[in-house]
Write a structure and sequence with these properties.
The protein is an all-alpha fold. α6 packs antiparallel against α7.
């Protein structure tokens, strides 16, 4: 699948002007409660003075001294914690200081510091949470390290990446020509959101795959119709024409009717196309029994599979299942095609699990695999 043809993905990545905020920390030294003993109060006073003088490590050592005083009261424990927060915020040391430096560096555009020492400091203090890792991924993106951005998101988020991260992964993969990673991100976006814009991008990319047959193109346009991503008159017309060309006039009639109901197919050409579809569909209906007998008498099951596909296009899903199953039982020249038709029939009948088994059994032809995979994605939603 050639995903390099996708355009306009950058607009989906809303990270350019983002800034990192922090929960407000205490920037004024806490007042001492009357109940704080000198053994606690003296090292805390020294810690404050050292922090104000820019001696963060020495200040933290004094905090540890206060923490080591035995039998502390709740008030003493509280004020020690408050002073630690003050010292860390003032000096840039400890978990609070690490968080402040991380945010300040990102907001100032010092992305390499965010990726390296800042993230390492947060990790040291067990503060590198999911939100912080998302910021690290953005820092990779903003610094132009697109391959590293792809690797970081895949290694650290796996299947847990949300929509924003998947958009970023898709964009970075696009920029470096990593089609596999971009396809994976786009498919996860389709699976997790079902949004038409992601279906639209995925199906447009599939449509440009090399070596597609008309039948495979028809399958992609069928999915466009089902996913609500057909674009205007030309898409409806092409879908209807392919259906007629490949022998599915009942399906074409239904498609044209949908286009007319949407006020997209109102010209004389569309009316003539509808007349053609109606005429051929009427002939199909009149000859159904005859065609079924001929297909059953054939040496292999290809005709039965095609007849099942035609019944699918008419919305006769149980009949379609029976016809395709009978064709497969007789033996077919294209097993992958038969399994795709069986999956479509099962899906139309509401038998999702059976449909997925049929789609997932397609293994040989790359383009057939792609078509089956797209249908499986749709079935899961």
């Amino acid at each position: 699948m050639n995903f390099r043809t996708i355009r306009g993905l950058a607009a989906a990545v809303l990270i350019g002007g983002a800034s990192v905020g922090l929960v407000a920390v205490q920037t004024a030294a806490p007042a001492y409660a009357a109940s704080v003993r000198p053994a606690v109060g003296k090292p805390l006073q020294e810690a404050r003075s050292l922090a104000d003088a820019g001696k963060g490590q020495a200040a933290l050592a004094k905090i540890q001294e206060a923490e080591g005083v035995p039998n502390k009261t709740p008030a003493e424990t509280q004020i020690i914690a408050q002073m630690r927060t003050y010292v860390e915020a003032k000096s840039g040391e400890g978990p609070v200081g690490a968080k402040i430096k991380f945010a300040n560096d990102y907001n100032a555009g010092r992305y390499r510091d965010v990726i390296g020492p800042d993230a390492d400091a947060l990790r040291k203090y067990s503060e590198l949470d999911g939100e912080s890792m998302r910021i690290v991924a953005q820092a990779y993106y903003q610094s132009g390290q697109k391959a590293e951005c792809v690797r970081y998101i895949k290694d650290n988020f796996g299947g847990g990446a949300g929509e924003g991260l998947l958009q970023m992964l898709m964009r970075c993969a696009y920029d470096i020509g990593d089609d596999e990673s971009m396809r994976g991100a786009l498919e996860k976006l389709v699976s997790s959101t079902g949004k038409p814009e992601y279906w639209k991008q995925l199906l447009k990319a599939a449509e440009r795959a090399k070596g597609l047959t008309d039948h495979q193109t028809l399958d992609i346009y069928r999915l466009k119709l089902l996913s609500g991503t057909l674009e205007g008159k030309d898409d409806y017309t092409l879908l209807a024409q392919l259906a007629i060309q490949l022998g599915f006039p009942g399906e074409a009639q239904n498609v044209i009717q949908k286009g007319m109901s949407a006020n997209l197919l109102t010209d004389d050409r569309s009316k003539r196309l509808m007349t053609m579809a109606q005429t051929q569909a009427g002939q199909d209906a009149a000859n159904l029994a005859k065609n079924m007998q001929a297909a059953q008498a054939a040496k292999n099951g290809d005709a039965l599979v095609k007849l099942g596909e035609d019944l699918w296009g008419q919305g006769k899903f149980p009949d379609a299942i029976k016809a395709v199953q009978a064709g497969i039982a007789k033996g077919v020249t294209d097993a992958s095609n038969a399994q795709i038709r069986l999956g479509m029939a099962y899906l139309g009948a509401g038998q999702k699990d059976a449909a997925l088994r049929a789609f997932n059994s397609v293994k040989d032809n790359p383009n057939q695999q792609m078509i089956a995979h797209l249908w499986a994605l749709y079935a899961r939603k």
